[in-house]
Amino acid sequence: LEYLNKKMEQSRQETEKDLFAKQIAETEREMDNINQMTQRQLLGNRFDDHDWIKISNIDFDGSRRAEDIKNLWQNSEHPSINQAEWSKEEVEKLFQIAGLKGCVDWEWIASELQTNRTAFMCLQKYQELNKELTKKEWTEEEDHMLIELVQKMRVGSFIPYTKIAYFMEGRNSTQLLYRWSKTLDPMVKRGKWTPAEDEMLLKAVEKYGIRDWFKIQEEVPGRVDAQCRGRFRNTLNQNVRRGKWSEKEVSDFKMLVEKHGVGKWAKISAELTGRTEMQCLHKWKVISGVK
């Protein structure tokens, strides 16, 4: 507008002034329309196409690949994505829908869930709560076969778990993804955390909060979400109490175990301020003989 107004003031011909006046009026109408738009209308659908290469080069100075930016926007950063805690009803519905599709088509499952979760979020929650994924122990032969198949069939960072499952009797694509990402992937670091990793983790938690571990893991190279979550909650969280349990804490702990059940340490820890899941597990082992 400033540019158009300046050009109109400098113009000596009435026809030019009229033309600039029309352009200014049109621009003002467009700006008014934009100001009245909601955030959803401004940002559009998370799968809308954008010039990701331009965004990569200009906004990120080429430090991020266009494909990575696109995936992050569509699967994590778009405001339409539901980042709230999962409700009990939502989890129950997730398992019902996943059962209909054999836990394979997570895009369809996320769509049917109708709670604005992404396919990856649905898969992640299913893995977290489905005990069947870890009941059957993996053999050394299965591990070797999975490693070999991943090396042969992967295309860049994409691993076709559904196709790989055809060659591994008794294992589905979800189990393969879980085993690879949590145990076999050589890019994932194991063992003791370094001071530098702790510093990166604390900065990421300060940036994203204590719920979005998928985003946090991206700030700590080589560590997955579960590792970041466990390290922070059990070691780095300054709000965690380290000393002896008070009588009230023990009493509250027993009530919460009765409420949620043995093994629900995440839920119990969330309601028992200042104690981690591991502390709750250890305390239960100590007093498990007490009624």
From TrEMBL:
The keyword Ubl conjugation does not apply. Residues 192-239 form the SANT domain. GO terms for cellular component: snRNA-activating protein complex. InterPro entries: Homeodomain-like_sf, Myb-like_DNA-bd, Myb_dom, SANT/Myb, SANT_dom. Residues 78-129, 130-184, 185-236, 237-288 form the Myb-like domain. One of its GO terms (molecular function) is RNA polymerase III type 3 promoter sequence-specific DNA binding. This is snRNA-activating protein complex subunit 4. The keyword Nucleus applies. It comes from Scyliorhinus torazame. Residues 130-184, 185-240, 241-291 form the HTH myb-type domain. GO terms for biological process: snRNA transcription by RNA polymerase II; snRNA transcription by RNA polymerase III. Pfam families: Myb_DNA-bind_6. Keywords: DNA-binding, Nucleus, Repeat, Transcription, Transcription regulation.
